[in-house]
Design brief:
Layout (H helix, E strand, L loop, with lengths): L12 E3 L9 E5 L3 H11 L3 E14 L3 E15 L6 E15 L18 E3 L3 E3 H12 L33 H12 L2
Parallel strand pairs: 5-6
Antiparallel strand pairs: 1-7, 2-3, 3-4, 4-5
């Protein structure tokens, strides 16, 4: 996917201290075509035709914040079978909870928490980074063009009958045994 050392191709920082403490702050982010091209290159996809993150940052209690948004995008990737372009529409609900008093994990071994939307409260929330994370998680891993299928592969040493996909199924020989029994009845 992306190179972890590569700089983020898009940024939209929001300082928490600058937001209204009693009402939601709404946002609607859409990168321009040049930025979408940079994001596509960063994400390792052919093209990013559209991307939008629309939502709000809402204060929760005295010092916590919640981000709720809808992420949508249209991406183009090569088909894993034919390399033909595959256009996919993506849509995800995005939720983050920024907690001022985030409990620190204890011990050497940690379990994944049930609530994976909680994060420590940063001084600055980069809304574009949230959109890029949503993009990476929503991208199809194996895009396939309509009608594209993997062919059957046969590889053997000379003089040996090739092993077919059907032969590897658990009950592959059962049919031949039953066919033999029927003819010898």
């Amino acid at each position: 996917m992306t190179d972890s050392d590569a700089p983020m191709p898009w940024s939209h920082p929001v300082r928490i201290a600058d937001l209204a403490a009693r009402k939601p702050t709404r946002f609607d982010l859409k990168p321009d075509p040049k930025t979408r091209a940079a994001i596509a290159e960063w994400a390792g996809i052919t093209a990013l035709n559209a991307l939008r993150l629309k939502g709000e940052l809402t204060p929760k209690g005295r010092s916590d914040w919640a981000l709720t948004a809808v992420f949508t995008a249209e991406v183009e990737q090569p088909c894993v079978v034919t390399l033909a372009p595959v256009v996919s529409g993506l849509a995800e609900n995005v939720e983050r909870r920024y907690l001022a008093d985030m409990p620190e994990p204890e011990g050497d071994e940690m379990e994944m928490p049930e609530d994976d939307s909680a994060e420590p409260l940063p001084a600055v929330v980069d809304l574009a980074t949230v959109a890029l994370e949503a993009l990476e998680l929503a991208l199809p891993l194996y895009p396939r063009a309509t009608g594209a299928e993997f062919g059957e592969t046969q590889a053997t040493e000379p003089g040996v009958a090739p092993l077919k996909d059907e032969d590897t199924r658990p009950f592959a020989n059962l049919r031949s045994l039953l066919d033999g029994k029927k003819s010898g009845e």
